[in-house]
């Protein structure tokens, strides 16, 4: 076989081209540098083989009398230009990928097209000895005609190059282009594709995206802004509303402390006053959850302050009810009580006040009464790996101390006042007979206790330790 290749060098050159195509497909994408090295090596061998046979790609084939050999040599010389263009394109593309990543794909494609165009013109000029000026003039006229026919498409192409060069957004960024919001899933020659929150795909031409107002929600990567607006009665005192909304902000621990969230009175009129809560979260995926939580917390803290959200409907709660009675109406745990039972319950509830930082219920303590938060924010602290951390925050209408009431067990968490808090207390001596008589409330309280126990176990579970790295450098460090 080697002797046959030595006797037929042109056949050997053809085999090298086929071998390159085969190895390019067989070597996986993860071995990109090996693929590049193999291609450069085969191209080098191919070049050496041609030049040793006197086939200079800068000149026409040397056997004009032998037509078959002349055509074969001409084909191999043209293949050298195309092979070289492909090798150079892959080499430059690999170097560019390290610097610009996937976003430079359009620029790489354009660069490859220019290199191949130069290679084709060079092959026509040197190998085929065609008049290049005439070819360029003809191709220029054709380019003008095609350019006019494809004006909008070319506008998309060059706009795509500008977008990938200036990088206003990248793959996986959440952006808004002229009000169309979604995650960038692809940027090609013609358009940018977004996956919207509804799961559909929006295709936006690059020429439109280049002229449009673009909002990138993913930059900076660790800070994403959000805001909600609530409307209340214009007769409510602004300071009361702002303090209630600030407690709602403190009740949401997913909001970043830097930059600090804020509460602002946006407008006020005869029909109502509008307040805005704005803040930042660490990840885009948290925005919807935090917005929903803020609406719920705003409603509860405003209600605890005696302020209701603006509504066209009338409130179904009588205005002459006591604070304790209103709290029972808003508590989901006691929602099944009859009106007279709630009246009796409210008469056996005592109000307690705690300053910010005070402990309401300590870990390990068996509570002999049930607390219902009337106003303020309560911080829940747990211990993991010997260190205390905040596991959650509670607000108006939520209860604590159910472990001692239901099963006479000690609480696993520390409950302390994040802000000044008022809580209503129901003694176990009164509550126990009621739970025995009302199985629905007893079951609801047991379900609440089970849920919190499982949540506490999940939060305090030790984080898995990362597996030690194995390799020569790690071995060298351990043995030196």
What does this structure look like?
With 480 residues, the protein is α+β, with helices and mostly antiparallel strands. It has four domains: 2-149, no CATH class; 159-216, SH3 type barrels, CATH 2.30.30; 224-304, Alpha-Beta Plaits (2-Layer Sandwich); 323-460, Jelly Rolls. It has helices at 2-7, 9-26, 32-52, 67-100, 105-127, 132-149, 151-166, 206-211, 238-251, 287-304, 323-330, 339-347, 402-406, 428-437, 439-460, 472-478; strands at 174-177, 180-187, 191-195, 201-205, 214-216, 224-232, 262-268, 273-281, 350-354, 359-361, 369-375, 378-384, 387-394, 399-400, 414-417, 421-427. A five-stranded antiparallel beta sheet has the order 4-3-2-1-5. Helix 3 packs antiparallel against helix 4 and helix 9 (238-251) crosses helix 10 (287-304). The longest helix has 34 residues, at 67-100. The chain is elongated, with a radius of gyration of 37 Å.
SSE inventory with pairings:
Blueprint: H1 2-7, H2 9-26, H3 32-52, H4 67-100, H5 105-127, H6 132-149, H7 151-166, E1 174-177, E2 180-187, E3 191-195, E4 201-205, H8 206-211, E5 214-216, E6 224-232, H9 238-251, E7 262-268, E8 273-281, H10 287-304, H11 323-330, H12 339-347, E9 350-354, E10 359-361, E11 369-375, E12 378-384, E13 387-394, E14 399-400, H13 402-406, E15 414-417, E16 421-427, H14 428-437, H15 439-460, H16 472-478
Helix pairs in contact: 2-3, 2-4, 3-4, 4-5, 9-10, 11-12
């Amino acid at each position: 076989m080697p002797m046959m290749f030595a006797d037929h060098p042109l056949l050997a050159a053809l085999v090298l081209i086929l071998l390159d195509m085969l190895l390019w497909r067989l070597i996986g994408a993860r071995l990109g540098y090996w693929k590049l090295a193999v291609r450069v090596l085969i191209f080098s061998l191919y070049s050496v083989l041609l030049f040793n046979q006197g086939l200079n790609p800068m000149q026409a084939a040397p056997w004009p009398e032998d037509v078959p050999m002349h055509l074969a040599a001409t084909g191999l010389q043209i293949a050298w230009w195309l092979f070289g263009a492909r090798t150079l394109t892959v080499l430059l593309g690999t170097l560019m990928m390290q610097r610009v990543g996937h976003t430079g794909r359009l620029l790489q494609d354009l660069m490859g097209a220019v290199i191949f165009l130069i290679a084709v013109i060079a092959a026509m000029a040197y190998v085929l000895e065609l008049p290049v000026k005439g070819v360029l003039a003809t191709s220029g006229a054709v380019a003008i005609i095609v350019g006019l026919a494809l004006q909008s498409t070319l506008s998309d192409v060059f706009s795509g190059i500008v977008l990938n060069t200036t990088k206003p957004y990248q793959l996986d960024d959440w952006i808004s282009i002229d009000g169309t919001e979604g995650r960038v899933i692809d940027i090609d020659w013609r358009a940018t594709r977004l996956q919207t929150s509804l799961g559909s795909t929006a295709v936006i031409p690059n020429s439109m995206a280049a002229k449009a107002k673009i909002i990138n929600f993913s930059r900076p990567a660790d800070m994403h802004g959000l805001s909600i607006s609530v409307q209340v009665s214009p007769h409510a005192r602004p300071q009361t509303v702002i303090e209630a909304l600030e407690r709602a902000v403190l009740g949401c621990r997913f909001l970043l402390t830097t930059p600090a969230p804020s509460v602002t009175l946006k407008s006020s009129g005869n029909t109502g006053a509008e307040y805005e809560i704005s803040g930042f979260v660490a990840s885009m995926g948290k925005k919807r959850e935090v917005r929903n939580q803020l609406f719920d917390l705003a409603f509860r803290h405003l209600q605890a302050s005696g302020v209701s959200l603006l509504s066209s409907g009338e409130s179904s709660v009588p205005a002459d009810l006591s604070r304790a009675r209103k709290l029972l109406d808003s508590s989901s745990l006691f929602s099944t009580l009859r009106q007279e039972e709630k009246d009796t319950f409210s008469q056996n509830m005592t109000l307690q006040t705690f300053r910010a930082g005070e402990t309401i219920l300590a870990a390990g303590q068996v509570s002999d009464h049930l607390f219902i938060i009337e106003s303020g924010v309560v911080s829940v602290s747990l211990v993991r790996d010997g260190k205390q951390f905040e596991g959650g925050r509670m607000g108006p209408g939520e209860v604590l101390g159910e472990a001692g009431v239901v099963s006479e067990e000690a609480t696993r968490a520390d409950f302390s006042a994040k802000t000044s808090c008022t809580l209503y207390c129901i003694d176990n001596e009164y509550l126990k007979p009621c739970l025995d008589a009302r199985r629905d409330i007893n079951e609801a309280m047991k379900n609440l206790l089970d849920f919190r126990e499982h949540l506490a176990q999940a939060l305090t579970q030790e984080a898995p330790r990362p597996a030690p790295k194995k390799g020569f450098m790690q071995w060298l460090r351990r043995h030196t």
